[in-house]
Structures
1.
Amino acid sequence: MTVAKIKAAPKKTGFLGNLSQYKEYYIMLIPGILFFLVFCYGPMYGLIIAFQDYYPLKGIEGSTFVGLKHFKSLFSNPFFLSVLKNTLIISLYKLLICFPAPIFLCLVLNEIKHVKFKKVAQSISYLPHFVSWVVVSGIIIEFLSPSRGPVNILLQNLGFDPVFFVGEARYFRGVLVLSDMWKSIGWGSIVYLAAVTSVDPALYEAAEMDGAGRIQRILHITLPALAPIVTVMLIMESGKILNDSFEQVYNFLSPTTYGVGDVISTFVYRMGIQNMQYSFTTAVDLFKNIISFMLVMLTNYIARRTNDYALW
């Protein structure tokens, strides 16, 4: 056996050796780690007040420890079940309608061959993401206004009565879901478009030469290429089922739509900020985050058992 045929065994390096070899990458990690320590893990210390009768002048150290008192108050609160139900219904509507929408937009944009038109369409679809919910809600409320909104003017010209879409309970959830889809569809499609660009164009050319139509190419090439990223995004979205959009709901909500639109975040805002029940609202938030964490774990477990793609 010659020396040339002998493969050199990989040199084992410990943590310090690895740190020295890739020190540039570890240095680049520092800002991200500091961000999470200061803004994500540091504030978790404040969760202690969920188990206290917190009084601001006494602080966390001086407030009385009361155990699970606020959790018991939470589950016996007459409004909590209604709020939880509204949150789940609105989030599930968004998951069913808003989650597939960027995938559909990605498929449509991927099939557009005119480069300039494709770029203009992409840019227009991204714009709502950069507008705050205060402005978006104002535009939509004005657009759906029963007295001067173009939708109701069209309805009246067709012989129908005007409808107060934002103020009527039966339309309120639909307004929330569609406005969220309009705001997020373009920005959400970026991830999927990035995944599609990694597909080898030779696959499309070979499929076309074999007689595959546009739908067949989408079903057998594009969608399988999107499967990993769709799975990961679905796992992440499952953790947001109880994390409703406070800015969106608060700007649309009115006393006439409390029955169908009051969600956990608006409930926490009223109880915590307006009524100054800090311990109670921290208990609500802790409950919400525990459920969200369990949903992410469950979805990841199901994804790992049913296909090859999962977060861990």
2.
Amino acid sequence: MSTLSETITRAIEAARTAGRPALVPFFTAGYPSPSAFANTLREIAGAADVVEIGVPFTDPMADGMSIQRASHAALEAGVSLSWIFEQIEVLEGRPSTPLLLMSYLNPLLAFGYEALAARAAQVGVAGFIVPDLPFEESADLREALAAEGLALVQLVSPLTSDERLAVVCEASGGFVYAVTTTGVTGGAGGLGDSVGAYLDRVRAASPLPVCAGFGIRSAADVQRLASHVDGVIVGSALVESLERGAAPATMLRELAGA
């Protein structure tokens, strides 16, 4: 029987086999409102290959203003990690799309690694992305998740050396998250001229699929990256779409060029 971690990898590989990059959207749990969470998740999952659900946090240091606003609003509305697990557990009509949680470290530490892994596996969450967890300090969480068959997706950046890239990619689960810039999410600077060469370098080092995130806002961005990665991650553009009250599935299909 395959693990939950492997369902992520398989979903991305299936998209590649179909001749397109996998679409991995991110949205903040409980935004635009906690009562809309179930419908928002179903809509997004129906247009995606893997879904990242953001756990709101008071100091989202890797995120730009759009996701910071969403995080603040969700916290004000009482959204927590336990609440997210409860909502996923009772979700009706859930698509088969693998679900990841993207969280800063403090909520996970407060939950406890073993309890976190067991609860995530119980509700069918396939893994975690933790942007403020240094690789050198990630072994305890990675081992706790692996014991339940869950992934700890590792992040790399254009500043990651070849030597470190090999080690980090080897330790990753599900896929490797290639951050396209050295700034925060949602930047308006676009993708740099050297992004293709950087992503090719990550792909050559990784035994897993590689998905690019940060700064991807348009179908043209997706097209530009399509030959360099196995999937694309879109966060701020989707959160801004939700902020405007737009239908998320429509936005995602336009992004994918469908």
